[in-house]
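haha ok so turns out i had the wrong file open the whole time. this is the CORRECT one, sorry everyone. sequence first:
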Amino acid sequence: MPRLLLLLFPLLLWSLRGHSQAGTDIILRSQQEIDQFGSQQVDTVHGNLTISGTSITNLHALRGLQHIDGYLLLRANIRLVSLGGLDSLSSLGGALIIQNNDRLKNMEGLGNLHRIGGIFTLERNLSLVNLQGLTQLEVIAGGLTSIVNHKLEDFTGLESLSHIGDNLDLCDNPQLLSFAGLNNLREIGGSLYVYNSASLVNLDGLNNLQMVRGELDIAKNPMLEDLNGLASLETIGECFYIFGNDALTSIEGLQALQNIGGTLTIIRNESLLACSVMGLCNYLQDPPGSVSIWENGEACSTVAGFTDFCTLTAQGSIVSSRFQIYPNPFHTNLNIITENPAPYTCHIYDHLGRLLFQQDFIGDEELNLNHLPQGFYLLNVHNGTKSHAMQVLKLD
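then structure:
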C-alpha cells in the first residue's frame, strides 16, 4: 500500500493544484489526449508543449491555455485545419515551431499572442498562404524562418511586429510575392536571407526596415527586379551579398544606405545595369572587407564601373526630391520635371565619363535622345547651385 501511494502521489499533487498548471514537458499525440488535457483546465505549462498526431483535427479543448514557459511545437498534424483553441495564449517563453501541417492555411487562433521568446519557424506547411491571425504579435525574440512553404504568398498578419531579435531567413518559398505584413518592421537583430523565391518580384513590405545587424544576403531569386523595398535601409552590420538574381536590373533603391560592416559581393546578376548607390561609393573609398563585383550587366560588372559613377556624382550634390525624371528605362524621349521655372543645364555621360549630350532649358523639358545607343548613362541636371544626378537606361 505505501508503494501504491508513492506511485499515486504525483497525480494527487496535480489534483490539489486545481488542474491549472502543468509542471513538466507535455506531449499530446492524439485528439483524445488533446481533449483530456483540455479538461484539466490548464492555463500554464511550465515546460514545453508538443502537439503531433495524425488523428488531431482541432485544438478547441485548449481554450484556457494562456502561457507556455518553453516552446510550442506543432508538427505533422495532417488533419489540423486551424489553430482555433489557442485563442487565450498570450506569450511563449521559448520558440514557436510549426512544421509539416499539411492543411493549415494561416495562423487564425493565435490572435492574443503578443510575444515569442525564441525562434518562430515555419517549415513545410503545404497549404500555408499567409500569417493572418497574428495581429497582436509585437516581438520575436529569436529569428523568423520560413522554409519550403509552397503556397506562402506574404506575411500578412504580422502588421504589429516591429522587431526580430535574430535572423529573418527565407528559403525555397516558391509562391512568395512580397513582404506585405512586415511594414512595421524596423530592425532585424541578425541577418536577412532571401533565397530561392521563384515568384518574388520585389521586396515591397520592408519599406520601413532601417537596420540589419548581421548580413544581407539576396540570392537566386530569378524574378526579383529591384531592391526598392529597402528604401529606408541605412545599416548592414556585416556582409552584403547579392548573387544570381537573373532579372535584377537595379539596386538603386538602396539610396538610404550609409554603412556596410563587412565584405561586399555582387556577382552573377546578369541583368544588373543600374547600380548608382552613394552608400556604396562611401564604402568603396575604404572598404572594411573584401570586394567582389563581376558577371553583372555591363555597367555594374567591375569595381571600376561603380567607382566611375562615384567620381562623377561627387562633383555635385544629389537632391532627388527636387526633380522627376521619367520614364526610366526609356526608348526615345526622357522627361525632366523641375520644382520651378528656372534655367537648367542637362549633361549626359557614358560609363567612362565622356560627355555625350548637353542641353539648356527653362522649367520642364522633354529630351529627345533617340541618337544614343542602348545602355546606361549618367544624367546630371544643375542650375549652378543645385544638382541632381541619376543613372538612366535607354532601350532599343
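Residues 320-394 form a domain with the Immunoglobulin-like fold (CATH 2.60.40.3080).
again sry for the mixup
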